[in-house]
Design a protein that fits this description.
The longest helix is centred in the middle third of the chain and has 15 residues, at about 90-105. α4 (about 90-105) packs parallel to α5. About 45% of the residues are buried. The chain has helices at about 30-45, 55-60, 60-70, 90-105, 125-130, 195-200, 200-215, 240-245, 250-260, 265-275; strands at about 1-10, 50, 75, 110, 135, 155-160, 175, 180-185, 185-190, 220-225, 265. The chain starts with a strand and ends in an 8-residue tail after the last helix. Helix content is about 35%, strand content about 15%. Strands 1, 2, 3, 10 and 11 form a five-stranded parallel sheet that branches. It contains ten helices and eleven strands. The structure holds zinc ion (ZN). Zinc ion binds near residues 8 and 77.
Length: about 280
Amino acid sequence: MFNLLTVDLEEWYHPEYVKNKTLFRKEERIQHSLKKTLDLLNQHNLKATFFVVGELVEKHPEIIESIREDDHEIAFHGYCHEPLWNLDAEALCAEIKKFNSLIGEKCAGFRAPSFSLDNKTKWALKVLENSGYQYDSSLFPAKTPLYGVWNAPTTPYKLSHDNVTKKDENAKLWEFPLLVYKLKFIRVPVAGGFYMRFFSVNLVAKAIKKLNQQGVPAIIFFHNWELDPQTPRLKLGLYRYFVTYHKLKETSKKLEHLLSEFQFTSIKEYMKSHARTNMTQ
Ligand SMILES: [Zn+2]
């Protein structure tokens, strides 16, 4: 049973609580953190999906070559990491075109910065479909202070353009929602980032097993900057500091644990091998 490993490839200054806080020249750490990421994946001999922030490629074109050399999937994570809440259809369309011309091809997958796909930003689905995308992985099916759609499906589905929580078999675009642990009336977000750092790795493993028992792949993610011990720490408010940097050093340990216990691949590979099924068999 394969699960799906995704990397949100961005700089340490892209996350929502950090951006606009850097007054001075921003230190570029991408080469270091990308190397750490690729090394980790190579050690476990697996392929992952990289959701890449466009402006990184503009500054460092060589990062695309490094990802391609190791045969990972390249997907899109917004041009400047601007959430969909701050964009419109025209702006997203322009971002996609700019990214495609930078990488010299169209990609199949999209992840909205800050998981900002919800019913207010469902206009993005038409743009993605018209731009040739095959899937989206932006829905966080639990409510968190910053994002999340608490009643969205928790297994891969074709999503309705009228309501992101509804399935539509005639739709073209697949949705790969992020992993949550379901307890009777509660959904605990455990897929990655702060939530994977905050909760125990055993809870994440339990959530993966629960899905796999139903024949469903779990979708997890991490950020390259979470693997970099020198990620700059900014002075933020107490809450924002906690969410952004809490237990950063544990990310690689937890990932090591999960990558050893479970099998993972990229979303593209998974879709290829499940092209004739409903993605969950
Ligand atoms: Zn991101």
